[in-house]
Design brief:
The complex is a heterodimer of chains A (646) and B (238). Chain A has 646 residues and is an alpha/beta fold. Helices cover 35% and strands 13% of the residues of chain A. Chain A has a domain at 12-242: Cobalamin-binding domain (Rossmann fold). In chain A, the strands form six sheets. Chain A has a five-stranded parallel β-sheet with strand order 2-1-3-4-5. In chain B, the strands form two sheets. In chain B, strands 1, 2, 3, 4, 5, 8, 9, 10 and 11 form a nine-stranded mixed β-sheet that branches. The termini of chain B are far apart. The chains are: A alpha/beta (646), B alpha+beta (238). The interface between A and B is large, with 39 and 34 residues.
């Protein structure tokens, strides 16, 4: 990060011989269509955008794809990509002294100014340490010197960055488009001025500009292990750090031409966010809480992005992304007009995250005119009406049956239902209700279609309480409870002679969720657990073949020894209203009293409407952050297609 | 609508184009599936009017005539495209090359006439360049001489069904060590398919000093008909 850095050159020649002996070497090659290579000397600020998991998972990440273009569009910024390296290559790289590299130019990551890390899931934390290690960047920010990049994290998991606070230099909360440019401008100015006051100098400027710099805050603990206080340790540092909110999505139509992977990845589609944010108010959902308010893209922008994106990538699948796609005020126009435009072509359109609503079946019908019709997915989340009131997921069982009946009537044969297990106040009966619901779905399908080949897949996973949600105070269900209830459900389905064979239950056991729970509501002491797990060889924790629950529990016992707190304290313990939560100094705009009120309402099964249609209920976002809900209808339509000559 | 209608049958291709393509440099690490995906996307970006297969999930009509292994570079892999509309082969070559990722390029495109044989029947042998780090030129020459003199070259390969043994010798049409670090092998493509790594294994068996310092690198230089002791382009008219 010093003032001027010479071009470190490419590591490729030393890497290539190692690639002959590893699995899927193509993921380390780069050179994909739409990847951007710039001259080292032309750039004043150099970023590495890193996703702490394998290329197959990280490459399709929408957030990084957006930042890659936003940054590279500036001629004074270069941004290259890097991903976690699988253990087979990592071992060879260590043996031969080859460091973590970027895909565009295979330059060493350590030579760049900023290592920007997208944290979508807590189970990537050990990979963050592995990448720092392979890059020869000191793990702790306190140990980094003038030649080390700034390690800056963003993404949903960084709304509680405390477990990794010691490993990062700064955190960007919320939308990254404008924030990443602001960070770039600060680093540019600081370098041009000769790096005044070294790392502390630039971190101070970043903190002034709204970044969270963990090292500028001290955490004190009380006798009972709870946090006594979180306080700035230098003058001029904000006591509370607010998230970034991008307004006017139509002015930020990214990604326009995302990198087209050569290696196989988990999502091979061109995705357009049709809106950002969600005010449905599901109490378990961190995404819906931290991304408020709702900001829509209009039909015209969406149409232009789809057309240009397909032409630039050669992809055939389009994903219309959002947290609740059918809630776009003009979703009918979007579906109808895109359906018309691509009818008879091989382009397929998909609308993930739809509500249980018969209207959605006509949407799905519009979007699948080309014949490709996958299963329909709905997420009632809770197995009983009572539990769905607790989580404020307004899915009525009769509505669900009406919806699937409409779907079966239009030729669908397979419905997928998503549920969580271990929700607050949940009983065995709530979970067993899932079997009854699935049976009703099958019966409705058999009656409507007159056929027996109707299938319902039930996916169920353990609920993990997250920061900045009404359930941030809740005690997480323990592993035994979750596993036992899932087994009860499986048994109930197996015992059902009439419908059981038409129902598939997919499930995750409770163990990874427990660790996710430790990390998502952990404080800075949990950082030692992450270090200890990494020291014991743990990486790629999001992969069941790499995740070891025993390694985590043993590491937690050893790293937390003497603190008076343990794994259970962080996970299954219910918090009180007055407890200082590790993320209380990070503000996503939600009023703490409103969150507490929602938590209390959950316990008495009280509902909360959506502010888009039923009036403001003072969650605090718009008033405190100066942002506003931006929705249509705009009355716009798709623009005519541009003529492509050949 | 209780049951879904079957989609209409797609018309057969109007034109068949035979394509010679290469994988160079870093693109050697693409697997066959990677190449296939990259190719389909490149055809769409380049707006080449592909014919599609019928069914609910139509695919562009591309048939591959063998393919080099992941990790091996190639100057002569082949495939055939079925087009919905006649195009100039030269335009298709340029458009595809421009749209393909770095290192994958289209070298030649020719039209397959009615009644002309498929590519698969015309790919009889390949010449491989094998980069071998470690053995001196002398050692390599000794190994080559011993291999050519041997009546059989037993090699082993680990397959899904365990270790399989077979004789690599009948497939070896030519073998030489033109310079230190390089082996050239021309191999007949028959069953069982003898691959260049089998040749490296055989060289190590006949000459104990033939020991590699690091993994060998393979590149297919040519592939086609085998006539009078040399490889002839499969596009050559009989």
């Amino acid at each position: 990060m010093s003032e001027r850095r010479d071009d470190p050159g490419s590591l490729y020649d030393r890497l290539e011989p190692l690639l002959m002996g590893v699995s899927k070497p193509i993921q380390y090659i780069g050179g994909e269509v739409n990847s951007i290579r710039k001259n080292w000397s032309d750039a004043e600020v150099r970023w590495v955008l890193m996703y702490p998991d394998a290329y197959a998972i990280g490459q399709p990440n929408q957030g990084l794809a957006i930042l890659y273009e936003v940054l590279n569009e500036r001629d004074w910024i270069m941004a290259e990509r890097s991903y976690a390296v699988w253990p087979d290559l990592a071992a060879l790289m260590r043996e031969h002294g080859v460091g973590q590299f970027t895909l565009e130019s295979h330059r060493p990551v350590r030579a760049f100014d900023i290592l920007g890390v997208s944290l979508s899931t807590e189970l990537g934390y050990t990979n963050l340490l592995a990448v720092l290690d392979l890059a020869s960047i000191p793990r702790r920010s306190a140990d980094r010197g003038p030649d080390d990049p700034l390690v800056i994290v963003g993404g949903h998991a960084s709304f509680n960055p405390e477990p990794i606070a010691d490993f990062v230099d700064a955190v960007v909360l919320g939308d990254g488009e404008e924030a990443s440019l602001r960070v770039s401008a600060i680093v540019r100015g600081w370098k041009a001025a000769g790096c005044p006051d070294g790392r502390v100098g630039v971190l101070t400027m970043l903190a002034d500009a709204g970044c969270y710099v963990p090292s500028f805050y001290d955490v004190a603990y009380a006798e009972d292990g709870r946090i006594a206080s979180v306080r700035p340790n230098r003058p001029g540092v904000a006591r509370i750090v607010e998230k970034n909110t991008l307004q006017h999505l139509d002015e930020w139509p990214y990604p326009k031409a995302p990198v087209v992977p050569i290696a196989e990845t988990v999502h091979e589609r061109y995705s357009v966010e049709i809106f950002r944010g969600c005010t449905r108010g599901c109490r378990f959902c961190q995404a819906g809480m931290v991304t408020r308010p709702v900001r829509e893209r209009n039909v015209e922008t969406i149409g232009c992005m789809v057309e240009a994106g397909l032409a630039a990538t050669g992809l055939e699948e389009v994903g219309l992304l959002s947290l609740s796609s059918a809630d776009h005020t003009e979703i009918g126009t979007i579906a109808k007009e895109l359906g018309d435009r691509y009818e008879g072509t091989n382009v397929s359109l998909s609308l993930p995250s739809t509500r249980v609503d018969a209207f959605n079946i006509s949407l799905a019908d519009e979007l699948s005119r080309n014949g490709r019709r996958s299963g329909l997915t709905f997420a009632p989340e809770g197995g009983s009406a009572r539990l769905r009131r607790v989580i404020n997921k307004g899915v009525d069982e009769d509505d669900l049956i009406v919806t699937v009946t409409a779907a079966f009537g239009r030729g669908w044969r397979h419905v997928k239902l998503y549920f969580m297990c271990g929700l607050p106040t949940e009983t065995d009966d709530d979970v067993l209700g899932i079997a009854d619901l699935a049976a009703r779905v099958i019966e409705a399908g058999r009656q409507t279609s007159g056929q027996r080949d109707i299938r319902c897949t039930v996916s169920i996973g353990g609920f993990v309480p997250k920061s900045h949600t009404p359930f941030q105070w809740a005690g997480q269900a323990d592993v035994e409870t979750i596993d036992r209830r899932i087994q009860l459900l499986r048994q109930r389905v197996r015992d059902d002679k009439r419908y059981g064979r038409s129902i598939t239950v997919r499930y995750h056991d409770g163990k990874p969720g427990q660790i996710e729970g430790l990390l998502s509501r952990g404080d800075r002491r949990v950082g030692r657990v992450v270090e200890e797990v990494y020291a014991r060889g743990g990486t790629f924790d999001g992969w069941s073949e790499h995740f070891s629950y025993d390694r985590w529990t043993e590491a937690a016992a050893s790293a937390l020894a003497g603190t008076g707190v343990d794994l259970g304290w962080y996970t299954t313990r219910e918090r009180t209203r007055d407890e200082v939560l590790p993320w209380d100094h990070l503000d996503v705009g939600l009023d703490r009293d409103w969150l507490w009120h929602e938590w209390q309402e959950a316990l008495v099964e009280g509902g909360q409407d959506d502010c888009r249609w039923d009036g403001c209920y003072d969650c605090g976002v718009c008033t405190s952050l100066g942002s506003e809900t931006q929705i249509g209808p705009t009355g716009k339509h798709l623009l005519p297609l541009t003529v492509v000559g050949s | 609508m209780a049951t879904r209608e079957q989609p209409p049958q797609s018309p057969p291709p109007v034109q068949r184009l035979q394509v010679r393509y290469c994988k160079r440099g870093r693109a050697r690490f693409t697997s066959h599936r990677d190449v296939a995906r990259a190719l389909e996307r490149a055809l769409r970006r380049a707006d080449i009017p592909m014919a599609y297969s019928s069914g609910f999930n139509p695919h562009p009509r591309i048939s591959y005539a063998g393919a080099s292994a992941t990790g091996a570079a190639t100057e002569a892999d082949y495939l055939e495209l079925g087009l919905a509309r006649s195009c100039d082969p030269g335009w298709v070559r340029d458009a595809m090359s421009a749209a393909l990722p770095e290192g994958i390029d289209v070298l030649e495109v020719v039209e397959r006439g009615i009644g002309e044989p498929s590519l698969t029947d015309r790919l009889e042998a390949s010449t491989w360049q094998i980069a071998v780090a470690g053995p001196s030129h002398d050692v390599a020459r000794r190994a080559v001489a011993a291999a050519l003199a041997a009546a059989s070259l037993p090699v082993e390969r680990l397959t899904k069904n365990g270790v399989r043994q077979f004789d690599a010798r009948p497939a070896v049409l030519a073998l030489e060590a033109p310079e230190a670090g390089t082996i050239l092998a021309t191999l007949r493509q028959e069953v069982p398919l003898v691959r260049p790594d089998d040749v490296v294994q055989a060289l190590g068996r006949v000459e104990p000093d033939f020991v590699l310092a690091s993994a060998a690198l393979y590149a297919r230089l040519d592939q086609g008909l085998y006539r009078d002791g040399r490889i002839v382009s499969p596009f050559e008219k009989p």
